[in-house]
């Protein structure tokens, strides 16, 4: 059974450097969604990073996926991975059930 992981990215460079790689990051996110790994994502407010909800078999798999993010490859953000066990997913959020 897959687990849910929350990836928290915190930018470590000026936002202009992040924006320069944003198109590649969004392409990467969409590919991960199409492959069934990424359930939801978006920037934090204030815009100092973002969150990605990941479905993966193991923490190691989630980490490997996340380390292929252009933001991580280009050293633009720090990555924290939190394993999350959803106890309830309301209608419409069934994808969050492991």
Could you name the key traits of this structure?
alpha+beta, about 30% strand, four-stranded antiparallel sheet, about 100 residues, 4 strands, Alpha-Beta Plaits
Walk me through the structure:
By secondary structure, this protein is an alpha+beta fold. The protein has one domain (3-85): 2-Layer Sandwich (Alpha-Beta Plaits), CATH 3.30.70.1060. 33% of the residues lie in helices and 32% in strands. It contains three helices and four strands, in the order E-H-E-E-H-H-E. The chain has helices at 15-34, 59-66, 70-73, and strands at 3-11, 38-43, 49-56, 77-84. A four-stranded antiparallel beta sheet has the order 2-3-1-4. Strand 2 (38-43) and strand 3 form a beta hairpin. The longest helix is centred in the N-terminal third of the chain and has 20 residues, at 15-34. The radius of gyration is 13 Å and the shape is globular. The protein starts with a strand and ends in a 14-residue tail after the last strand.
């Amino acid at each position: 059974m897959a687990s849910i992981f929350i990836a928290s990215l915190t930018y470590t460079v000026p936002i202009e450097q992040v924006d320069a790689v944003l198109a590649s990051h969004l392409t990467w996110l969409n590919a991960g969604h199409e492959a069934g790994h990424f359930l939801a994502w978006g920037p934090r407010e204030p815009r100092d990073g973002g969150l990605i909800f990941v479905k993966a078999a193991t923490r190691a798999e989630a980490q490997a996926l996340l380390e292929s993010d252009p933001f991580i490859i280009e050293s633009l953000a720090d990555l924290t991975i939190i394993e999350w066990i959803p106890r309830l997913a309301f209608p419409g959020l069934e994808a969050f059930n492991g």
